[in-house]
Design a protein that fits this description.
This protein is mainly α and 110 residues long. The chain is built from five helices and no strands. The protein has one domain (14-96).
């Protein structure tokens, strides 16, 4: 579980955002929610509704109901092309997930 106590999401801190996103990439649900929030707000990263929707979806799929609520707000602000790209990223992530009991595939750098 990500330690979010020291993270001030209202600060514009690229280093904190990078650490948080790394935890989100490792599968931490709380970090995924927080990554969605920092992308939605542009805190420490460029505002990116596609990434916000993607990370909020990943958190929601792990059971974070607050992520679903924020995801609805993000989706309402997205253009159709952004929404389509976000859904494409979600589908790609699902395809990359290994079957239960297998190790994940190596990730490509961004």
């Amino acid at each position: 579980m990500a330690d979010l106590r020291g993270l001030n999401l209202l600060r514009n801190d690229p280093e904190a955002a990078a650490r948080l996103i790394a935890e989100a990439e490792s599968g931490d649900m709380d970090a995924q929610y927080a990554a969605g929030l920092v992308y939605a707000e542009g805190r420490g990263v460029e505002l990116d509704l596609v990434q916000a929707y993607y990370w909020l979806t990943r958190a929601f799929e792990q059971g974070d109901t607050d992520a679903e609520k924020l995801r609805f707000h993000v989706a309402a602000e997205m253009r159709d092309s952004e929404f389509a790209e976000a859904r494409r990223l979600v589908q790609l992530a699902k395809q990359a997930l290994p079957p239960a009991g297998q190790a994940p595939l190596a990730r490509r750098p961004h």
